[in-house]
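Hey, quick one: can you model this chain's 3D structure?
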Amino acid sequence: MQVEPGTFLIRFSETKPGSFTIGYRGGYPSGETEAKHYLVTPSDHALHKTLPDFICQHAQFRDLLQLITDPASGQLVLMKVNKHAALDPFCSKRQRTPEPFLPAKGYTPLCT
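Sure thing. Here's the predicted structure for all 112 residues.
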């Protein structure tokens, strides 16, 4: 499946039980893209914000790949959904100042 930069999915981490990994397509000014991964640690969300808040604060995450059942075929398919349309109902209503995020070892750093 070919996806545009900013397209992401959320999965459980295989190496850090209880944590999530965000796999996303990153882009470069040259037009090249590559798959990147960010390990979401408890310090990225937990008491200060929800996982949806964390995702919505970062511009590199634009469209969520959501697993849905195709009404026509009944099969599971990936559908690209704008992150705000998918996650805003789960975001806290308070405005927060973005905090600096440091990546876990071996994962790609994020910009705010």
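One thing worth noting: The beta strands are 7-12, 20-27, 33-40, 63-69, 76-82.
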